[in-house]
Amino acid sequence: MIVFDHVSKQYGKSATLAVDDLNMTVESGKVFGYIGPNGAGKSTTIRLMTGILAPTSGRVVIGGHDMAKDPLAAKRHIGFVPDAHELYDRLTGMEYLNFMADVYQVDSAKRKVHIEKYLNLFELEDAAGEQIRSYSRGMKQKLTIIGALIHNPPVWVLDEPMVGLDPKSSHVLKEEMRRHCDAGNTVFFSTHVLEVAEKLCDEIAIIDKGKVLARGTMEELRSGETGSSLEELFLQLTEAEGEDA
Amino acid sequence: MRDYGLLLGLTLRNRLAALRSGSWRKDNGKIDFGRIIGSIVVVLSIALLAGCIIYAEIKLFDVLKMLRQEALLPAVAMLLSMLSTLLLSFFHVLSGLYFSKDTVWMAYLPVRSGAVMAAKMTEVWMGEVLFALAMLLPVNILYGMHLNADVLYYVRMAVISLLAPVMPLCIVALLTSLLARATTLVRNKEAITVVLSLVLLVGVLLLEGILLPKIPDDADAMFFVRLMLDNEGILTMLTSAFPPVLWAVHGLQGNWTEFLLFVGCCMACVVLMLLLLGKSYLGVSLKQSEQGTRKKHVKTHAGTWKQRSPLMAMFNKEWKAVVKSPTVAFNCLPSIFMFPLMVIMFIVSISSMMDMNEFMGEMMGMVEQISTLDLALILAAAVGFASFINPAVATAVSREGSRLDISRMIPVSARTQMTAKLMVGMLIDVLAVGISVILLLVLLPQLSGAILLGGALALMLCYASSAMNLTLDAVRPNLHWTNEAQVVKQGANVAFGMLIGMALFALPIIPPILLLGSAPWVRFAAAGGVLVLEVVLGAVLLRLVAEKRFARLEPTA
After folding, report:
1. Domain range for A103
2. Using one digit for the tens of pLDDT, what is the confidence trace for B138-160?
3. Which end of chain A is more exposed for a tag (fewer CB within 10 A), N or C?
4. Closest to A108 (Cβ–Cβ): which among B292, B306, B410?
5. Which helix (H) or strand (E) holds A61?
6. Which of A71, A88, A130 minimises the CB distance to B403?
7. Is A159 helix (H, G, I), strand (E, B) or coil?
8. Chain A partners within 8 Å of B296 (Cβ)
């Protein structure tokens, strides 16, 4: 479970808040989609959730652990797939995965099973012995996905996960997200691909200018607005917000 | 020319961004007094160092004046400046031209390859010229004052000082280009780069050794008399293999023809470099970012799945980041071989002059006059001096760069991460001190007690220096860089870390000097006491400052 308790984030002296009084709970066993225009605050929310940034006010609680008070316990509950791939370029794929397994304290037997399973699933076995700097963007994306899943995290966070993936890998990832959720875990992801969010998510939040404009299941979102597709809803909400501002 | 101007402007704006007023403020808009005070301390430390150098130069100039060899001072400074640029800029040029993150971005801009190379070489020159100016300006101003020179002297001086690194940089650009072209042919580029760089550097050193002037074997007393009586004798001999140095000195003295010869030679080198390398530069540089793959199924064994503690995982990752990058490895690992190399060179030069057994006998006779404790202090100073400079630890936080996100996201405490960084620094120090101690034990087994004690003291100095260097880098890291050389070679933290190390090195030496009349154990206790205080201070700073600052480090949006 993820709890955002009146979380705000201000960068430097910026007049606006990147995240403005975010107050929501994401339950376990759900795929939660987080959508919004560029610069809406999606990545900042995710960076606050994963402990990369500290909130200006409010608190983030992951699996019952406050990220500010008990960051290590909170981080152990998370597997994170970032949107940028600033990895340790000179490590091989296998060295990186073992590094992630070590920091998440995954024992030898479990890591062997996980790494072999996911390398096979994402067709990365042949590249695992190569340095990461030789990888394509998609291969780096797959490697970070495997690294994030290495400890079977109760909360799986993905920032724009479909970018760079080929159709087959994208399909495998979506199936894996659903399977992870069905096992009782939470999947929280941001995306610009509204079709993916519409089909995959149990719950969706639309964010713009740091504020959550709407939140709920597709049916709940549809009931309050005139649009029928997520794309229409998204455009209505974000344009209305732009006009209000 | 327009492309070059645009790219250079971009580089300059990027480099000078740190000086903008906003950089002196914290994220919350308040003035960052810590940063300002830190910068003032850096400037004062550099000024202090410069003051010491200028003082030494004035004293040397007084001696040369007595010998009527005043022109030797600017000549020696010029020669040293050019030779040190030739050696020390190698990895700067290599990483600036061929391992820079922005090369791919520049490759798809509609700019000519030669313009990109010229802009990058100008950036390298800007880094190297500061060192050249520091070496040349005080000397040349002293010389100008001695000559009662006019304004034109100082104009010529400025031009010559600014152009001093140009020729060595062009030579280095040519060598690194050959190296980069050779490595495009192999799959494992970085390992080959490391090995070939070493071979090239040894080659350059040998060439310098061959070209540097030597006293003829058949030199008699009259040879030296003639040399001393001739105002230009030593100068001509010294610069015989490097005519541009002689042109520069004569140019300084007012010979416009030789001044223009020097300037023209520098310009010709630049044009030649761009003509030879400019057109193909981008292609060769981009090939460095290509990584061939074997596409073989990865082989696993029981050890592949071995679980390590988070501390060992972080240490392993840090160590690989140091040894697998040519730029980082060549700036961070030389201290391991510094002392053994100095000892070997000393032995070689002694053995060419006298019988080694005779020398060892004489030396042991002298050493026997010194108590074991004093000897331990001397050895600690020698080994410690060659080992305490450690850019690996002074840049451990800065080298995270944009990967700081990973450090912030993983469930490993700031203490563990900082301990791993310190362990990597200490491993380098332990290797440096360990190899030195083993070499000394082999050469001087009779002094094993003093050697081991000296090694232990040297390690204490290294720990204190590493802990304080790491603290400094956690307090003021540079996380925004485009190539690793900007952090490990040009980073202010490396320079400031060296100053801290020098201070830590000097402090324990003072009490034994003040207590020269006391018993050896008193001197040893005084030096050891200061070292213990340094170690405690380092550990406290690491725990109370470094770890907290690292935990609070936040990547920018």
Report:
1. 86-152
2. 888 888 888 888 889 999 999 99
3. C
4. B306
5. strand A57-62
6. A88
7. strand
8. 126, 129
